[in-house]
Hints:
The chain is α/β, with parallel strands linked by helices and 253 residues long. The protein has one domain (8-188, 222-244): NAD(P)-binding Rossmann-like Domain (Rossmann fold, 3-Layer(aba) Sandwich). The chain has nine helices and seven strands; from the N terminus they run βαβαβαβαβααβαααβ. Strands 3-2-1-4-5-6-7 form a seven-stranded parallel sheet, with helices on both faces. Strand 4, helix 4 and strand 5 form a beta-alpha-beta unit. Helix 4 packs parallel to helix 6 (154-174) and helix 7 crosses helix 8. The protein is globular, with a radius of gyration of 17 Å.
Amino acid sequence: MGLLEGNVTIITGGGRGIGYGIARAFAKQGSNLTICGRTESTLLHAKEELEKEFDVEVLCVAADGSDEAQVQNVVDKTIEKYGKINTMVNNAQVSKSGVLLADHTKEDFDLAIYSGLYATFFYMKACFPYLKETKGSVVNFASGAGLFGKPGQSSYAAAKEGIRGLTRVAATEWGEFGVRANCVCPLAMTEGLVKWKAEYPQLFEQTIKGIPLQRFGDPETDIGSVAVFLASDLAAYVSGETITCQGGSGLRP
Length: 253
């Protein structure tokens, strides 16, 4: 029996990158899944891999998280298929990383806020009635970009810090219903980082030196495992927290 046996989890951006690693971690612990994102073919490929390897069901729903109606459709289809929701994982985010604050346009800023902060708000609000029924939880993804003011990340950092604030308020307001809400700030090896490592090997090695554990995290075993913990009964008294999962480089007072 897994920690999440028979549960139902919605994961945004669950078809690739950190989201796919999270999906694998949840499936390994027995949770059925709804994975959503903007590209249906990516979702369908992930579904095939997940169902082939794990004894779970996977529902794919293509959706743009910045569109409230599309978010509601994801939740409605999840309830139609499974009848419940135990965990909402808000992982997806798009931004113009690398663009300095002074060079940002309103469109650049809107991209991050709508794909991150608004999407998280829409999914949390739509899931809340069902999370009350299961005394479930929300696991939101923030970033060290916001915690530490990383250069070239102004809109991304703003969206992620907004998500952290939203999470803390939800933990306060929803606690009486047994619903928990927490944040994870990850540092993980993704497809984009693999490409970056190949293009800039010296910069990559310099970056590694700034991580006490001397490596980037694995999306499934390092980041996904923390999300599983927060969704499970092992974290039944954990709410409103931000966990930095960054190999020791996310030290905070």
